[in-house]
Design brief:
Length: about 100
């Protein structure tokens, strides 16, 4: 089974949710922006790591250390993550352009 590890989303427990609600009321907008930026940076680093892993698997295949199915799985994971990231970027740009077109 192939799992996308780009976004590790787990449902928080009741205690975690309560602590998150308390901490969110005390956050400033700048802190929230930094956390969002860190989240995006982490996601992009994971996509980059999948690309590097795919290249390493290809190199290992050339010298006979791994099977072709492992190489194909790694390359497809990297491709899907890159396509997903590209679609997120496109949607963000569309949303920004729509906001800029809005007349007040």
């Amino acid at each position: 089974m192939i799992q996308n590890t780009m976004f590790n989303i787990q449902s928080p427990s009741v205690q975690q949710a309560a602590s998150l609600n308390n901490s969110k009321t005390q956050e400033t907008p700048a802190e929230s922006l930094r956390q969002f930026g860190a989240y995006l940076e982490d996601a992009l680093n994971q996509v980059n790591q999948q690309e590097i892993n795919s290249q390493e698997m290809s190199n290992k295949f050339l010298i006979g250390q791994v099977d072709v199915d492992q190489v194909m799985i790694a390359s497809q994971e990297a491709l899907l993550s890159l396509q997903f990231t590209t679609q997120i970027r496109n949607k963000a740009i569309e949303a920004y352009q729509e906001i800029m077109r809005t007349q007040l």
